């Protein structure tokens, strides 16, 4: 038994239902099978560079798979940003805490940082998370199924009120660079138009779909991803979000009045926002997240440094972080064409 091994674990980037199930899976197997110790790093890389670290014993992860958020906290602070101190600072904090390796749970940004740390000789294993489903190295990530379920249930509810008033409803869902949530929630709820960042669609076409739905006696439903670019540019609320990223959200509010003005159909807009990331994970996400956690501790014990766990078909595999962060997984043309047959 390697009972002197200490493994730091962190969650970074936007939170996502299932993070706690990953933590629980890794800690339970690490404790039971490998006899290793865990250290909880608070608020992602912030805790790593500021040495905000606490023991994470097995009893702290009891019952966690059904809970939302992350018990460790998260942030968008990175070690390579201003004042972060880079790999040198991370090595210093790890040494001080006698931390042997890190499990980093995060999206494409976090996994890029993990790869950079690995390039500098730090022992790190990644676990992919994103509600956006935009990581190409894994078939799915936990959080996506929950986000789609919440969006679908919300749209179903918006539908009955829109139908009662013969209104058009525009529903904005998350999806910064890719339209997977919009595509799946839109398909599940029978949307008359699904608008995603990958597909330019003219206002004329959007209004055409809205009018044809109304002509058939339906309350037109438009599902739009926050990253949809109506005129080839993102709709941003503020210039930047404090971490150098444009803060998206607002495309629905932008679209609604234009649809109303052009079609003369009374239109309401709903932005689902962070509701899609809150609360309990679906059972699918709990299972996937738990399996990722179990596989992550195996990867650590196999010294698969610079790798991340990934779902391929029904199997959990490991892939190099460099592969995992190479491309975003966008909605292919064929998937949009398939859905578009049902628009209007
Ligand atoms: N290319 C990069 N180089 C250095 N740091 C990065 C890079 N990409 C992301 N980061 C850091 O990692 C943090 C987490 O990434 P972010 O995109 O916010 O979340 P996620 O991991 O969910 O994609 C960022 O806020 C930033 O501090
Ligand atoms: O939590 P914030 O800072 O409002 O960011 C919102 C963004 O987070 C996400 O939910 C997930 O983004 P990340 O995977 O980069 O964390 C996006 O869909 C959305 O654009
Ligand atoms: Mg990101």
From TrEMBL:
It comes from the Bacteria. HAMAP family: Phosphofructokinase_III (MF_01976). The keyword Endoplasmic reticulum does not apply. Mg(2+) binds at residue 108. Belongs to the phosphofructokinase type A (PFKA) family. Mixed-substrate PFK group III subfamily. Its EC number is 2.7.1.11. GO terms for molecular function: 6-phosphofructokinase activity; AMP binding; ATP binding; diphosphate-fructose-6-phosphate 1-phosphotransferase activity; fructose-6-phosphate binding; identical protein binding; metal ion binding; monosaccharide binding. It is an enzyme of class 2 (transferase). It comes from Yimella lutea. One of its GO terms (biological process) is fructose 6-phosphate metabolic process. Keywords: ATP-binding, Cytoplasm, Glycolysis, Kinase, Magnesium, Metal-binding, Nucleotide-binding, Transferase. Its main location: cytoplasm. The active site is at residue 132. Pathway: Carbohydrate degradation; glycolysis; D-glyceraldehyde 3-phosphate and glycerone phosphate from D-glucose: step 3/4. ATP binds at residues 14, 76-77, 107-110. It catalyses: beta-D-fructose 6-phosphate + ATP = beta-D-fructose 1,6-bisphosphate + ADP + H(+). InterPro entries: ATP_PFK, ATP_PFK_prok-type, Phosphofructokinase_CS, Phosphofructokinase_dom, Phosphofructokinase_III, PKF_sf. Homodimer or homotetramer. Coiled coil: none annotated. Catalyzes the phosphorylation of D-fructose 6-phosphate to fructose 1,6-bisphosphate by ATP, the first committing step of glycolysis. The record marks 109 as: Important for substrate specificity. Its cofactor is Mg(2+). It is found in: Cytoplasm. Pfam families: PFK. This is ATP-dependent 6-phosphofructokinase. GO terms for cellular component: 6-phosphofructokinase complex.
